[in-house]
Amino acid sequence: MLLVDDHPLFLDGVRAALAGEDDIEVVGEAHDVATAVALAGDLRPDVVLMDLNLPDGSGADATREVVATSPTTRILFITMSADDEAVVAAMRSGARGFFVKGGGRDDLLQAVRTVASGGAVFSPAVADRLGAWFTGMAAQPGRESFPQVTEREREVLDLVARGYDNRRIAKALFLSDKTVRNHISTILTKLGAADRAEAVQRARRAGMGALDKGTSVS
What we know:
By secondary structure, the chain is of the alpha/beta class. The protein has helices at 8-18, 33-43, 59-69, 84-93, 105-116, 124-137, 151-161, 166-173, 177-191, 196-205, and strands at residues 2-4, 28-30, 47-50, 53-54, 57-58, 74-79, 97-100, 121-122. A six-stranded parallel sheet has the order 2-1-3-6-7-8. The protein has a two-stranded antiparallel sheet with strand order 4-5.
């Protein structure tokens, strides 16, 4: 098992929780995306315990790279966040489970073993949020108006229409700034929009970009 987290005290706690388990061996630790991807490629662990937020990027980005280079490695996210965007980012990247920090030792051990054996695991709160998110997908604004746009691009376009700048979009969707820029460029091309402002107008006409309370658009 590979542990990926940038908080030494948390890693100490995980190591202590796993200590003495004959069927679980920690083969390495990483504190950032680059190291995690490199170690996963070299060690090919059965399971990676992956933090969602790392100093040089998101755990979701790291997961996509790990899964691409080591398809047999299974990813279990451990994070403080249980919001909808975090859950969806984890699933879209190829994760097999989502465990919220603060759970008990027995629950963690069960989650690791379940994922290692090929299963998927979610806390009750995460499972409820995930189910609600997928239930709402069919009614998502813009699905019929922009069939050429992918689900991820639609998520980006919706936030653009809310008035989010690229950095805020990246934070909300756990993406890099570069990835957001690439998505926006592709969206403009697919929509045939001359610029960001035109894309916003078209998205809002399609019902996208409902503003959060307190959100202002400059």
